[in-house]
Amino acid sequence: MKNLLRLSSVLAVAALVAASPAANAAIVNFEFDGTFDPTFTPPIVGTGTFSFDGAAVAGTTVALSSLSNVAMSFTIGGVSVTFDDLITPLANIQVRFTLSGSDILTNFGGSGGGPFGGSADFTDATGFLTFQPGFGSLYQATGSAGTFRGVVQAAAVPEPMSLALVGLGLAGLAASRRRPR
Prior knowledge:
Elements: H1 2-19, E1 25-33, E2 44-53, E3 60-63, E4 68-76, E5 79-82, E6 93-100, E7 103-110, E8 120-124, E9 127-131, E10 138-141, E11 144-152, H2 160-178
Helix pairs in contact: 1-2
C-alpha cells in the first residue's frame, strides 16, 4: 500500500510537470507580397518567422540584442535566410511592436550598418534579404521586392479541462499525503 501511494504521488507530480505551461515565447509570422508599395497585397510570395523568449508588447520598441533565444527564418522566392545569416550588427537593430486593430505588428528599424542599407540585412548562398530602414514595411531580396507584414501569433491559452486535470492531480497528491499510515 505504501508503494502504491508513493507511485501515485510520483505520477501526480509527473502529470503536474507535464501539464505546466511552456516558457513564454513570442512568435511573429511574416508574409511577403510582390508589390513594392506600402500596402500589403496578396498573392503572398514568401513567409517567415521571428521568435524570442518573452512577450511582444504593443507600443514598445526594443533592441534586438536585448531579446533572448532569438530565431529568424525567412523564405522569399529562392532566398532562404536565418538568424545566422544576419550581417547587420545586432546592436544596431531595433524591433517595434504596434497595435493595428486586434493585431500586434512587428517592424525592424535602428541605425542599420549592413551592406544593403536596410534596418536588418541578411545574406547567404541563396541571395540576400534587406528590410526597409526606419521601421518601414518594404523589403528587397534577390529577384524580389515588395511589402512585408509581421503579425504576432496569439499566445496559447490552456484549456479548462487541462487546468481541471492539474487541479485533480494536486488534490490527489494532497490527499495521499494526509492519509494516516
